Amino acid sequence: MNYRPTMHDVARLAGVSIKTVSRVVNNEPRVNPETGAKVSKAIQELGFRRNEQARSLRPGQASGLLGLVTSDMSNPFYSAIACGIEEVAQQRGYFVLTASSEEDASREQRLIESLLQHNIDGLMIVPAVGDHQYLSPTLLRDVPAVALDRPGHAQMDSVLLDNREGALQAVTALIGEGHRRIAMIDGYPQVYTGAERIAGYAAALRQHQIEQVPDLIMTGHHGELQAEAAMDRLFRLGDPPTAVFTTNNRITLGVLRAMKRWNRWLAVASFDDFELADMLHIPILVVRYNAVEMGRKAAELLFHRLEDPQTTARTCYVPVEVVIRGG
Amino acid sequence: MNYRPTMHDVARLAGVSIKTVSRVVNNEPRVNPETGAKVSKAIQELGFRRNEQARSLRPGQASGLLGLVTSDMSNPFYSAIACGIEEVAQQRGYFVLTASSEEDASREQRLIESLLQHNIDGLMIVPAVGDHQYLSPTLLRDVPAVALDRPGHAQMDSVLLDNREGALQAVTALIGEGHRRIAMIDGYPQVYTGAERIAGYAAALRQHQIEQVPDLIMTGHHGELQAEAAMDRLFRLGDPPTAVFTTNNRITLGVLRAMKRWNRWLAVASFDDFELADMLHIPILVVRYNAVEMGRKAAELLFHRLEDPQTTARTCYVPVEVVIRGG
DNA sequence: TTGTAAGCGTTATCAA
DNA sequence: TTGATAACGCTTACAA
Fold first, then answer.
1. B141 CB-near residues (< 8 Å, 6+ apart)
2. CATH of the domain at A209
3. CA pair distance A46, A35, nearest whole angstrom
4. What's the CA A139/C1' D6 distance, rounded, in angstroms?
5. Binning pLDDT at 50, 70 and 90, where does residue A1 land?
C-alpha cells in the first residue's frame, strides 16, 4: 500500500513544525523565505498534497464541493445545465457531486440529505414535483441552494425560463401561419414548466379568439413513446389538427417519429430546440434558449450567495426566442 | 446560522456516551434495545446526520466518492457514460465528482490531483492524448482507476469499444453497396479510438483490393465545423467520393450539414449513432453501441477492484454493431 | 453492554 | 517569525 505523506512528514523532513508547513501550503504571509524554501522542497520531495477532507473538517472551512440534483441526466437539457455548472465550478476550484432524482420527490430528499452529509458548500437542484418544504433553509442547514428550471422554496435563488412567453410566441407564430386547429401534447402538467407552457398555449389561442378543443389537448405524457402514441391518436381523429405544439424535447421527438411513420407532416412548434433539428426536411418552429448558460447562471448565483449570504433571494430569467429550424 | 448537531449532542440528549451513539448510527450489534431506542429518538429530535468527511478521515474508511474525468461533457457520448456510472454509483450510495479535461493532458493531471486531494475511493477516466505515466499506481497513490474509451496505464482496468472491427464492418458494408471511392473524415488520429477506426477503414479497403486515395482521406478535424469544411473540400474534388466514412458523431453532424448545404447526398457510414439519425430522409449506416452500458461496466469494474484490489487488470470490450438508420 | 481516550490530517489560538 | 497544543466530528482499541 502506498503511504500518503502528511504535513507531519513534511515538517519532519524540513525540520520545522507542522504549523509552518500549514503556513507555506496556504501561502500565509510572515514566513521566512528561507524556511519557506526548505518546506517547499520537502513538499516536492514527498509529493505532499493537502487532504481536503481533513481541512474542511474544521467549521467555517469550505469543502469545495457543490451538489447538483436533476431529474434525469440522460436528457440533453439537464446535461447541458450540468456542463454550465461544471464550467463555473471548475474555474473556482470546486467539484460538483451530481445525482438524479428521477423526478421522485422522496428520492430527491434522500439525495439531498446524503449530499449534506458530505458537507457540500452549496446545492443546485431541479426540484421534482411535489411539496418542497424540505428545501427550507432550516432543513438544508442554511446551505445555500439554487433552484433550476423550476421554482423551489420561497427563500431560494432560482434560474428560470420564460416558459409562458416562449409558448405564447411559438403558438402565435403557428396562428400567424394560418393554423386554427392547433393541438398540444405535453408532459406532466403538474410540473411547473409544463403548466406554464400550457398557459402560454392557452393565452395564444385566447388572444386570437380561437376556442380550445379538448380533443386536441393531450396532457400527461412521459417520454417519447407516450408522445408518439398521442400523436397517433391525433392522426386518427375525424378532424385532425393542422399543427402541433409540443412542450418539451422528448415529446417533440415522439411526435416527429409518429409523423414519419404516418408520412404526414403537420406544422410543428416545439418548446426546446434539439440537435439536428436543422436537418429535418420540414421546417419546424422551436423555442430556443441557452441551457448551458442556465447552468452557469445558477452556479454564479450560488457563488455570489456563498460570498454574501445575506442578500435576499433572486430569480434570474434566461431569455427564450422562437426560431425556425429545418426545412 | 443553523447549528449542525453532532454525535456529542445526540449523546448528551440521550444520556449516553458518544461511542454508544456511534454504535447505533452504524448498526453495530450488542446495543441494548432500550438504549438504542433512546439514541434513535435523540437522533430524530435533533435531526442528526453523520458527517461523512469526519468519518472518512480515518484511514481505511471509504469516502464514498468516485472521480470521473472525461474530455468533454457536452458530447452526448460522454454524458451517456456519466449516466451509466452514476446509476451504478448511486445504487451503492456513492457520489461521483465529474470534471472535464478538455482533451488537455496537463489539465487532466491537475484534475486528478485535485480529485485525490478529496480522497476519492476510485477514479474513472477517459485519458486525454499524451503520455499517461501519471496514471501509474504510484502517482495515483494506489487509488483504483478504470480507463474508459481509451486505454490508460498498463495496470489499469479498462472499458473499450471494438473500434477497429466496427469501422471495418461499416466500411465493408459501403463496399458491399458497390462503393469504391470511399472517403474518410476523422477527428484526431493521435487519439486511440481515431487510430483504431482509421485502421479498420484501411483494413476494409485492403480486404477488397481497393487502393487508398490520399485525396479522400481527411484527418485531424476538431468538431463539426472543421468536418463540414472537410466535406466541402471533398465535394470540390474533380472526382468526388461516392461514400463517406466518418469516425465520430461530431464529424458526422458536420458532414450532414455540408451535404444539406450542397444538397448532394452521398452514402454515409458513421462511427457513433446519434439522436434523430432515424429521422433523416436518407439511409445512413451507423456503428452503434451502448454508451450508458460502458459507464455501468466501468463503475462495476471499479467496485470489484475496491472489493478485491489484488486481481490483475482487466479489459472489458463493449460490443458494437452496424445498423441502418434513416431513409 | 457501555464508556474512556487516542487519533485521523488539518487549521487556529496563543505564547515564545 | 515560529511552534506547542487544542480543536473539528468521527471511529476504534481497550477498559470497565
1. A2, A4, B116
2. 3.40.50.2300
3. 17
4. 31
5. low
Q: Residue A75 in contact with residue A250, Cβ under 8 Å?
A: yes
pLDDT digits (tens, 9 = 90+) for B222-267: 889 999 999 999 999 999 999 999 999 999 999 999 999 999 999 9
pLDDT of B1 higher than 60: no
Distances (CA, A) of B323 to A319, B77, B273, B278, B320: 40, 18, 9, 11, 10
Residue A92 banded pLDDT, cuts 50, 70, 90: very high
Cβ separation B97–A65 shorter than 8 A: yes
3-state SS assignment for residue B318: strand
In terms of domains, do A232 and A115 share one?
A: no
Whether nucleic acid strand D comes within 7 Å of the CB of A35, the answer is yes
Please check whether residues B66 and B41 belong to one and the same domain: no
> Would you say the C-beta of B32 is within 7 Å of strand C?
yes
Q: Which domain holds residue A32?
A: 7-50
**Model pTM score:** 0.94
Chain B residues inside the 8 Å CB shell of A139: 47
Average pLDDT, chain A: 94
Q: Which residue of B has its CA nearest to A93?
A: B114
- CATH number where A36 lies: 1.10.260.40
Q: Are residues A284 and A167 in the same domain?
A: yes
Tens-digit pLDDT profile for residues B127-155: 998 878 888 888 888 899 999 999 998 88
Same domain (yes/no): B29, B42: yes
- Residue A153 is predicted with a pLDDT of 87
Cβ of A279 within 8 Å of Cβ of B276? The answer is: yes
Q: What is the pLDDT of residue A224?
A: 94
Do B114 and A93 lie within an 8 Å CB cutoff?
yes
Domain-located, residue A325 = no
Confidence bin at A134 (pLDDT 50/70/90): confident
The cell numbers describing A27, all together, are 501561502
* Residues A247 and A178 placed together within one structural domain of the fold: yes
Give the pLDDT mean for A58-87: 95
Q: Judge if B204 and B64 occupy the same domain.
A: no
The answer to the question of residue B324 being in a domain is no
d(CA A204, CA A176): 11
| Closest by CA position to A66, among listed A116, A134, A109 | A116
Total domain count, chain B? 3
pLDDT bin (cut points 50, 70, 90) of residue B80 is very high
